[in-house]
Amino acid sequence: MTAADPILASDTWLARTGPEEHVVVSSRARYARNLPGLPFPMRARPEELAAVAERVAAAVSVHPRFRDGYHLELPGLTPGERTYLKENLLISPEMEKGNEHRAIFLSPDIALAVMINEEDHLRLYALDAGFRLNEVLNAVIALESDLAKSLGFAFSPKFGYLTACPTNTGTGLRASVMVHLPGMVASKQMAEFAKSMPQLGLTVRGFYGENSDHIGDFFQISNEITLGKSEEEIVQAVCHVVERVIEREEQARRSIFEQSRGAAEDEVWRAYGILTHARSMSSDEAVRLLSRLRYGVDRGFFPALSHGELNRLIIAVQPGHLQYGRGAIGPAERDALRAELLRARLASRPSNN
Amino acid sequence: MTAADPILASDTWLARTGPEEHVVVSSRARYARNLPGLPFPMRARPEELAAVAERVAAAVSVHPRFRDGYHLELPGLTPGERTYLKENLLISPEMEKGNEHRAIFLSPDIALAVMINEEDHLRLYALDAGFRLNEVLNAVIALESDLAKSLGFAFSPKFGYLTACPTNTGTGLRASVMVHLPGMVASKQMAEFAKSMPQLGLTVRGFYGENSDHIGDFFQISNEITLGKSEEEIVQAVCHVVERVIEREEQARRSIFEQSRGAAEDEVWRAYGILTHARSMSSDEAVRLLSRLRYGVDRGFFPALSHGELNRLIIAVQPGHLQYGRGAIGPAERDALRAELLRARLASRPSNN
Hints:
The structure is a homodimer.
Chain A: H1 5-9, E1 24-33, H2 46-61, E2 70-73, H3 79-87, H4 93-96, E3 103-106, E4 112-116, E5 122-129, H5 133-151, E6 155-156, E7 160-161, E8 173-180, H6 182-186, H7 190-196, E9 202-205, E10 218-223, H8 231-259, H9 261-275, H10 283-298, H11 307-316, H12 319-323, H13 331-347
Antiparallel strand pairs in A: 1-5, 1-8, 2-3, 3-4, 4-5, 6-7, 8-10, 9-10
């Protein structure tokens, strides 16, 4: 099991349905953990990284959730495969670099993962579509507890779990949800909303996490601080904000359709018209227009189109996905392929135009 | 015959097919004529205008080409009807004002017309779709010759036919063609082209003539000077330029498709996607997008769509056409009706998307 092909060939996990999927695209909980007596990856020598990878792999490969799953050694993957995994939100931009002794284990249902030798020795995460933060928290708690028995993670009674970056010290937990907020963006609520996050110990990031722009009105909301709080308190805080966000977003969408129904419907249908007819399209424009269609899915304009299908398309139009398996193609050819893919996937589905 | 309804209900003459219709939308030849012994309309008293109208009507109504045609007294039409006629390019903006003793006679096939008491006592014109300047010239020459027998137009051996504005003195002929030049606009040839016209005694105007902007890459090319030249020389000069324009426009379209076929096709299909899906559209945007479709008609993208149908749509989306017969509607409602009309007319026709 070293080829990424089975994952790459399968549909992305984002295509699943989940609670509150009209606003919440996905939920994720991850733990940062390290082995005692070995330096953090950034300061480790190659043989130390190799030792980490070997010990973690031994523990994970016998875990029942990873039976029949995937064990991918990052340096063994092509750059295209790594980009593909990053665009699917399965590995971080850091892992995409493919340095020596980096690996990822994925459960067969792509719901549970262990990244080895990223910033920390281990990054364990559980993820699912929709608003399921408690479920993914429980899944990653169970995994951590199982692996702790054989690996015995580095822990200080004073600071909690020790991590390469101090912001992860403590529980080492990051709970995050990806939300789609076209209503709040259109009604210009996002700046004020983002500003209110730090005082709650939370932060707002773009589609691909830290340092990524917000594209298509997608945002990740997660906890900033892991020290001095229990897992339950952290998840509680994120859940509380996400529940408020869902309400505000629903209210914003209602207001938009009440106050300027014609303009809002016009925007959705124009997006659909362009997506189903253009011959060339950048990934930014594609995501922006697909984002508009979510409105229309909510309003029943596209009975054959689900939120999951839109999520899948947003991933499918990313450069690495279009490039994958095609050899060297230039930007113009990629933009043409993207438009072709969108026409094929969307134009065949009935709409209420 | 005082109601405009029969004309308004019929499809516009622009929907006809004609030679070189991919570039030349229509051809028109008009004579300015005045009755001797009566002041020009601008300086005439009401009873003088009434006398002009009566004498001209008597002559025109017995002319065989106007049998079963239309005799419309402008003050008797509603503002909506007058706007409708102007948008159909049948009356001038000046006639649209509907002042007393103004009238228009139209032949049943809307190919020949006499406007009474516009700037001159008579404006006779012949018009048709496509590049048919010699044909419309011959038609208006024949009409003028017939009417001259009973009306005896004001003529000076030195200046030729006398007209209210000196620029029309001489033959009183204006020969004009409406051309569609998206290729020359896109390749930025229009400024230089327009600049070269005066030295040929010609001028370039917008879709609705003098003082109208060029919308959707439509232009009217016509002679500026009528003095010191014969009808044949005038028409010859316009024809010569139009023939060159057709060549240049064809060359420009070929270059665009050769040099950036993808971008050109993309532009056509995006226009079609928006036209068949938008819920609200201004008339300027509609004309601009319909103008793009002409490219696609040339390339066989829309087998069920003709240049005539596009011409008809360009008129049908004008504010007065949408307003007509609907009572008081606001701009937002009009924009919604326009989008609805475009979807109904275009979406039902098969395309090669």
